[in-house]
Automatic annotation (TrEMBL):
SMART domains: FOLN (SM00274), KAZAL (SM00280). It comes from the Eukaryota. Its main location: secreted. GO terms for cellular component: extracellular space. Belongs to the SPARC family. It is found in: Secreted, Extracellular space, Extracellular matrix. It comes from Tetraodon nigroviridis (Spotted green pufferfish). Keywords: Calcium, Disulfide bond, Extracellular matrix, Glycoprotein, Metal-binding, Secreted, Signal. InterPro entries: EF-hand-dom_pair, EF_Hand_1_Ca_BS, Fol_N, Follistatin/Osteonectin_EGF, Kazal_dom, Kazal_dom_sf, Osteonectin_CS, SPARC/Testican_Ca-bd-dom. This is Secreted protein, acidic, cysteine-rich (osteonectin).
Amino acid sequence: MRVWILFVLCLAASARAAPAEEEAFVEELVTEEPVVEEPEVGANPVQIEVGEFDEAIEIVEDDAVENACLNHHCKKGKVCEVDESNTPMCVCQDPTTCPPAEAEFEHVCGTDNKTYDSSCHFFATKCAEGTKKGHKLHLDYVGPCKFIEPCVDSELHEFPLRMRDWLKNVLVTLYERDLDHNLLTEKQKLRVKKIYENEKRLQAGDHSLDLLAHDFKKNYNMYIFPVHWQFGQLDQHPADGYLTHSELSPLRAPLIPMEHCTTRFFEECDADSDNYIALEEWAACFGVKEQDIDKELVI
Ligand SMILES: [Ca+2]
Ligand SMILES: [Ca+2]
């Protein structure tokens, strides 16, 4: 439970400073290491080896090359290079230029069921592969690939019970800690305040599934906003009312090794199997009634 709360806290903090690229977002979440500086193009040995220029000219060249890439952002798996006219462009990173993983937790498992040394290696490989195999490679989960036992129907039914409760507790925790951190926006705070101050709220704890099911019936209204909030946290690249596999990744990738029903749950959430989870599909799979699904709550 605690791990979940910490994890979603990180998720919320990352989302507040969400970068433009969806995969950069995933990368930030799945690695605990600081973002590795990509090699400066100006330090390219090929350029340094050019012997025709005297030292002064070479420095000017280096600066120019460096500047062209300085403000040129490339998504994960790509690095900036300049062409002959010094125009910066993003090209697939060679996976061998990724720093080696220092610990097992840095490994990631791809949807091809292969373990990659780090998310850097994964995204570099994904970039090189593109869609040439007819399907897009995705990051499946954090950690090395392992056997994940099949999720049976009864377990699948338990998953949203726990997750709804977690989401509500996460929001309450964010609210409690929010004094100066701006973890929540003012609009969000107003919503959570009502949950926080409700005396009937089921306090965080290790509750039985029966109690969680009972509380969902009894205090249904308290669960509506947390489900919408989580959708909004994920739907950012772009914020279009649909979750792609990559947008969902910050939530599902760390969860899969802990919760073996994660994959099946989110697969079935996509009721029309179009590979996107719409707000309506998301809310329905968390038990929110159709009449309570409200785009205005995705704030
Ligand atoms: Ca989206
Ligand atoms: Ca869908």
